[in-house]
Automatic annotation (TrEMBL):
Name of the molecule in the record: Olfactory receptor
Native species: Pogona vitticeps (central bearded dragon)
Domain of life, per lineage: Eukaryota
PANTHER family reported for this sequence: OLFACTORY RECEPTOR
The family this protein is said to belong to: Belongs to the G-protein coupled receptor 1 family.
Keyword Transmembrane in record: yes
Amino acid sequence: MENTNNVSEFILVGLTQDQDLQRVCFGIFLIFYMAILLGNLLITVTIKSSPQLTSPMYFFLSYLSFVDMCYSSVTAPKLLADLLIKNKTISYYGCMAQVFISHFFGCTEIFLLIAMAYDRYFAICKPLHYTTFISKSVCRWMVGLSWLGGFVLSMVQTLLTVHLPFSGPNEIDHYFCDVHPLLKLACTDTYVARVIVIANSGMISLSCFLVLTVSYIVILVTLRTHSSEGCLKALSTCASHIMVVIMFFGPCIFIYMRPSFTFSEDKSVSVFYTIITPMLNPLIYTLRNEEVKNAMRKVWRRKRL
């Protein structure tokens, strides 16, 4: 799509203007990004190479780890590079691509979390029907629909942003291109666009969060009828999922479920769901799961041999 705007590039303000603080942030976020790549890659490789981790839960977890790596890679490398340079610019097309890809992986992760909750619901609440409703083909369909849903929703956001006229100023008060900061720069009335953003990203995040909350409440109520050992195991798994849901959906709802006003906290909140949460996911899922830890040990032993 040809760019007919006067703006050919955008200037990113970044996280901070303090150069000393930028160096500190570079070191911290470099460690975080390396932890994201190594942790999620370790989970993906472990699940794919371990014959004992074949249940649907681990199938979804491997894709969630892959999406986390991709999602953080949309913003983290650019953030790290900008912390070392003075002129933080991004081209118009690079900015639109960042909007599309970030929303693509973000929405895909939302639908994957829904699929994981669906899997846990049938595993705990309807165990006799579990193999019927959660077969391998069903799992593949749910993953495919997650990717398709992420593509459709991100395409809506991107087309909405691309058709906005930008004639200046071109300074984005953020460390990456997102819809709300771009709406502030558009040289037109953005009321309809803001409503669409709330209806798209905001309502999707809120409705999915409510669905997940209700499903886990039902699961926790059902756990009361299980044996103590089975209850503790299921509760440990559900607790991991609930922690991820709260950490991911809380910031998303704060950012997108409101008018396109910007607050000083927006950058910190965005860091949380683009970098912190993908980094903590491997720790949450592995430290509370003995099967994954045992599989990692076996994979490590095989690699050493």
